[in-house]
């Protein structure tokens, strides 16, 4: 009996041991696998563009829709949520003129399609996006749109619109999927820092060929057109024994810089100007154009008329080593205020 | 020989008993268990393809770490429920944009998985200022995001693989100003469907298969005594090398008597396989292997180990003479029946391992060498380093004296032998 009992115990123990062994093997084998862990590389942030092309298109479309609403309503107040800076001053003036003339100037047209967009890779704020549109339906030159985002909680707004000059070549920029770097106003290694280039250009506008910086700049359509207008007005003023004077001043902090592929900077900056015309021999100085007339409205003219302009200039500042001159590639000049003094 | 056979016969049953009675069942059980576990891992215990990990947070903002959403699979589904009545928004954007948006706020990072069902979190604070400004937009209105989903109470998002690299920002109070820190409790669940599951079955199948093979081998091949397996190999047909002559076991065993038959065999130029030549060399240093070889029943004769090779084949590897393929009686009959040729010296040194005994045996064989064809011309090189290490200087001197005498005698025998010398393979001593 004892032998049988021992044998029985042994059998039970063996079976138990076998079950435990099988169970332990099962515990070892049956599982979901190791929990994946984040690698260090996946947390490293690469330098990527701030926006996708689709985002830029969406932002630009929203802005243009808001402008169109303001244009159609002849209500510059609708612009504030989408337009800022010099573009707001220019568009407000254009809409005000359109209210008087019942026609928006052709220069205000902004094509909805673009040829190229330049998206920055910078991480901070403010951020700037350049977009170059196609030509307009009436064969006007392309527009360079400058959109800025001042902080994370603000949306991109249209900061400036300049019309490209004829026969100028814009610098090349990295494709949107790669992105470009935003330049700074004190970038060195260029013919001049962007801030200095704008200041020198303002001096050139004021003094013409007599400017000490005249040698830094290549000829451009904007200066040629302005010189012609000034010469024409000068002839009339001389006939009336009147005088005229223009002043140009750089708007502080109204400057955007984008680094091109070849190392130069494409700078868009606001230069304000005032044109004071004083008629002689007791005559009245009257507005000289439809825009001025529209903006002057029903004000009483005097012998002196002061017209304020917003000039938006796009300058390409090449690298110093290139030996090239600073080139004004696009501009916009808009009368924003006409007042008798 | 008889003792060796008896030992093996006595040992074989015990070996077979152990292999078949103990080892084979162990391997068999292991094989069965592993394959069974493999089947279980492929069926019942198969890892789940559906992974759902959750966490609960109580900050206004929750941010996923880059790469966290694609931790398990490229595609992920996110279910978010908020206990607050405020608008709940989930946006997808660049890390730097998210950091800019939540500047100045304490937020919760979703850093990964602490287990297959739990999302690991970490509290963090974003640097910067959260003061609102005129013209600020809400999270939903901001155009920085590549994707925005908003709702009240709960939000369901399905993220395709191509957009899964950008992190998510959860805002439990999406309509509030940027400086508001209040946020509701948030329950976040991430669902992944694993496209590639860990395969535990195949390794188990493989190891189980190996165990099964091992069990079969233990029950058959390994249960046999090694000598039986070797004998089986020895019965395989071999290609004899006609031109090779080796010092083989007969010389060692039979001494002067055997040398007679050995020299006959050498004159017949009967070779053997490499394998047996190797054994023969070992036999030169030990008698025991020789007796074992002879006990196998194959009576080997002849085959002087010489390294003689046909001219022009010196680059070939060592040749081995199969001593088991010799029929001493037949060769002896053939030798005696043939016409006697001119006795020629037939000293050969097989290799460095050839010992003094071998030299002595061969020297005795030389005197009786009388083959059907003249022996090849040989130029023995006694200066072999290993050979001189075991042959005493006196023996060496005696050998040279005898060798010189034989050479002189050979030159005096006539042109017939000389003519044959030139046609025979050259001595290639020390080929090893």
TrEMBL record, chain A:
Keywords: Signal. PROSITE patterns: PROKAR_LIPOPROTEIN, TAT. This is DUF8094 domain-containing protein. InterPro entries: DUF8094 (IPR058407), TAT_signal (IPR006311). Residues 51-330 form the DUF8094 domain. Residues 1-29 form the signal peptide. It comes from the Bacteria.
